[in-house]
Design a protein that fits this description.
2 domains, globular, Rossmann fold, 548 residues, 21 helices
């Protein structure tokens, strides 16, 4: 016991020391960069081959603050519409409400540095060097200034007299991105074509969905679980219906939240399932919840999430099932359990469903990280910091007998070989406008890698990474533009399809009508976020789309 206490004290001391050193370095950076000798960007130069166009920062300042066209900006004004000029003026002074320490913490993290490397290829210093360090310092200094972090203030704090925009590199990146978008659109169209084909083949019609909640009342219990073996403590909300069906133990569904979320993010679905007779367990993963992101932004954590979370998250669920089995064996059936997760929680669900970590695929994908547009790789590639010799690759729990994965990350961490190991009914849910875990590489293509006879791919057109999330007080605020269409639409899809998916195979209240099929998806679809559901997709045809 003394060793454990000493180890904990060492960890706390080491963490505090790292945090103190970072903050000290951060303050020294601010004091050095804000000294009078520091340069500020005076000019923006855009290079395209032998051509060069220049624009003074002063002309942008005058326009933003006074609305007057001066210098080079007046010369270029005819190239822009009135609306574009108004957008430019507003945008130059638009302030991001974020603390300088939060900016520093993120851009010193693994994910932040990968973003800087990519942007630094286009935004360069006067000497033509990558803008990596200059961009980071300008962001921190602008956030720390009285005016705050605005595009104009970023230019004013850029630590060289000239900012060079490599337009050739920028146009090349735009060209590559256009190809990625075009291919994704073709794949999405293929899914939608299959959806229409399945509707015609089924030849079924349905009323407008499941109306309202179920008939069961329920209670919520709040548990604190302590896994001494892993020295890990985490809370769990357990939703328990007050009645059972035919005096049978309650069927159980586990919900795993995503990175930066918490137990309340999918509380709406937990309550909904409980009203139909399911017991629902919602754990909070301490290394990847909202508090972890807040700690990062406040300087108490060094990265978005520790790489060990790839292992700890599935083990949290396994430990949770052990504890429920020990405490509620007469009330809850833990031999056949459903799981649903979103984003990092979807990874968790698939790992427990049998998908195996694949370090070979991960290594290959992460070597091309700097040229990839797949944002989820920033998280997936963190797993390379795990020692492959001692890291378990199979985290399957045989008690998990069905899984729903919303916006999962799969392509590198599992790959085709890892995904093919899943042997239980599985549903992948995707958003066509998801920039975090893009639909084609992370859900549509991996859907074809599943070898199980019962599999579903759900596509929400215009859906984003946040379309199914409920806003919670503890989560990091998300801009409305990133959320996309009304999340209540996506939440309703999850409630109805999720209920049908789980009630088909577990002892719970089965809705009076509906089936997990294309026709039913068509009956509940909404114009703002059209819904598709398919059970098969031509792998050969899809591979022709994604192969350069």
């Amino acid at each position: 016991m003394l060793d454990i206490i000493n180890n904990k004290q060492k960890k706390i001391f080491n963490h505090s020391l790292k945090s103190f050193i970072f903050k000290l370095g951060f303050m020294l950076t601010l004091s050095n960069f804000t000294a009078p000798k520091v340069l500020a960007a005076e000019e923006i130069s855009v290079n395209y081959g032998p051509l060069e166009f220049s624009l003074s920062v002063e002309s942008l300042r005058v326009y933003a603050q006074e609305g007057k066209m001066t210098g080079e900006l007046a010369d270029y004004a005819d190239l822009l519409t009135k609306e574009q000029l108004e957008t430019l003026r507003f945008g130059l002074s638009r302030k991001a409400d974020i603390q300088p320490l939060s900016v520093a913490q993120f851009f010193y993290s693994y994910q932040g540095e990968r973003i800087l490397e990519r942007v630094g290829q286009i935004v360069r210093t006067r000497a033509g060097q990558s803008g990596f360090y200059a961009i980071r310092s300008a962001l921190i200094l602008a956030a720390a200034s009285e005016e705050g972090l605005t595009p104009l203030n970023f230019l004013k704090t850029f630590p060289t007299s000239e900012i060079t925009i490599d337009s050739e590199q920028g146009l090349e990146i735009i060209k590559e991105l256009s190809k990625v978008i075009q291919t994704a659109e073709q794949a999405i169209a293929e899914v939608e074509d299959n959806f229409l084909t399945e509707i015609i083949t089924e030849n079924k019609s349905f009323p407008e969905g499941i109306n309202g909640v179920g008939r069961f009342s329920y209670q919520t219990e709040n548990l604190i679980l302590r896994d001494n073996q892993r020295q890990r403590t985490f809370p769990v909300d357990l939703y328990l219906p007050k009645q059972t069906i035919n005096n049978q133990p309650l069927s159980l569904v586990v919900i795993s939240h995503g990175l930066g979320s918490d137990r309340s993010t999918f509380a709406y679905f937990a309550r909904y399932l409980a009203s139909y007779g399911f017991a629902v367990a919602v754990p909070e993963h301490p290394g990847s919840n909202a508090s972890q992101i807040q700690n990062l932004l406040e300087g108490f954590a060094n990265d978005v999430t520790p790489p060990e979370e790839f292992i700890n998250r599935p083990l949290d669920i396994t430990y949770l099932l052990d504890q429920i089995e020990a405490r509620y064996s007469s009330q809850i059936n833990t031999k056949d359990v459903g799981i649903i997760g979103q984003s990092f929680g979807a990874y968790t669900a698939l790992a427990l469903a049998g998908a195996e970590l694949n370090f070979a695929t991960l290594n290959t994908a992460c070597q091309a990280l700097d040229s990839s547009f797949n944002v989820s790789l920033f998280l997936q590639c963190l797993a390379l910091e795990l020692p492959p010799e001692t890291t378990p690759t199979n985290l399957k729990d045989p008690r998990i007998t069905s899984a729903i994965a919303i916006n999962p990350l799969t392509s590198a961490i599992f790959g085709q070989k890892g995904m093919s190991k899943i042997d239980i009914p599985t549903m992948l849910v995707s958003g066509s406008a998801d920039p975090v875990t893009p639909a084609l590489p992370e859900q549509i293509r991996p859907f074809t890698w599943l070898n199980v006879p019962e599999k579903y791919l759900v596509l929400m057109k215009e859906g984003t990474h946040f379309s199914t999330l409920n806003e919670s007080s503890g989560s990091i605020p998300i801009p409305e533009t990133a959320i996309g269409p009304d999340p209540k639409i996506g939440q309703n899809y999850i409630k109805q399809l999720g209920l049908l998916f789980f009630s088909d195979r577990y002892s719970a209240e089965t809705p009076d009508f509906g089936c997990l099929c294309a026709g039913y998806a068509a009956s509940i679809t909404q114009p703002a976020m059209p819904l598709s559901l398919i059970t098969q997709l031509n792998e050969t045809k899809l591979e022709l789309l994604v192969t350069p």
